[in-house]
Design goal:
alpha/beta, 3 domains, 8-stranded mixed sheet, 9 helices, 30% helix, 25% strand, binds flavin-adenine dinucleotide
Amino acid sequence: MWDLVIVGGGVCGLALGYGASRRGQRVLVLDDRDALARPSRGNFGLIWVQGKGVGFSDYARITQASARLWPGFADELQQLTGVDLEYRPSGGLDFCLSPQEVLEREAGLEALHADTGLQTRMLNATELACFLPGVGHVPGASWCDMDAHVNPLMLLLALAQGIERRGGSVRRDEAVQQAEAGSDGVHLLLDGGKEIHGRHLLLCTGLGGEALRDSLGVTLPVRGVKGQILVTARQPPLLPFATAHLRQTADGTVMCGDSWEEGDTGNQTQTLVLGKIARTATRLLPALGQARMLRAWAATRVITPDGAPLYQPSARYSNVHAVACHSGVTLAAWHALELAGLLAQHSGAPLLSMTTERFDVETNPNHRHRIGSH
Ligand SMILES: Cc1cc2nc3c(=O)[nH]c(=O)nc-3n(C[C@H](O)[C@H](O)[C@H](O)COP(=O)(O)OP(=O)(O)OC[C@H]3O[C@@H](n4cnc5c(N)ncnc54)[C@H](O)[C@@H]3O)c2cc1C
């Protein structure tokens, strides 16, 4: 019998699985067939702190905690698996594309600073030009030392290998059809009729798994928001740090993209959206006007009503939890090193503010939180 069975082998399921296995739990991760639209494969790779958690101090706190844990986490995974995560604690810039955006950003960051003490500073156009030679005509940007970036595919690989090195198992192409829970543990039925038994169950199924959650008494309101990414051929070093719009990877390609497409899901790219991404990219860094575009893809974000994560216990079974999370890359270190332990210790909610209770207008009339797109 497994101590913990996780349904969903995206970055959230694997980070929590790695965290549990490094605490000595026997972990099994079951993941359905891969699909291109999965956010864990198609994301931007930012570990992004600035702007996260205005008016929601617990979200700001875990995001900042994760960024602090990331260096040790990356080091540990690399030592254990030999996989280079291409983790770069570079700091990050978020460009403002209009004077109005400069004003809004200043106000938002002041509020976040007052709430959480996060140090973020605004740069005007002249300061920005000194900071980033080659930048285009941009009225300003915000800078945060805590922002960083990583290769998301290497992260998935290292987490899966890390679980296996610690005695667990990650099985691909295993769709879970049904699940039951009770005081004797959890029982899962896989596509093909195979059965799995475990003590605890964690549902990290992203936008999928609704039928499983319903049958186990877990409510998780999530919606899909598409994002598209355009990648250039390798460039000489242009960007020494992460930005919310552009990221130069370890092999020199530049990822461009910040689209936020409500009501759309799937992996279809659209020329109109990619054209807009390319125009913004060349406005920010005119040198990219000469770059050849290599590929483009679309992926769908997992978004909760206020954009912050949900760590939700089942209303019926003390051994069942579910996770829904945008910013799964940013939070991967905290999920592995902290949340996995909290979930093991608590039969209810590991963090009360991170459940659907916060959407209850009677107990929480003023909930409104700002999220960043990463
Ligand atoms: C364009 C884009 C850019 C982004 N950029 C960033 C960024 O820069 N930084 C950041 O922190 N975050 C970013 N994100 C968000 C981040 O990628 C997500 O938060 C994260 O990938 C969510 O991971 P997950 O494991 O919850 O979900 P998923 O990746 O969707 O994984 C869920 C898994 O569950 C499996 N599954 C579902 N149902 C079943 C079943 N019945 N049986 C078995 N398996 C099942 C699926 O096959 C899937 O593999 C971005 C997302 C997008 C789309």
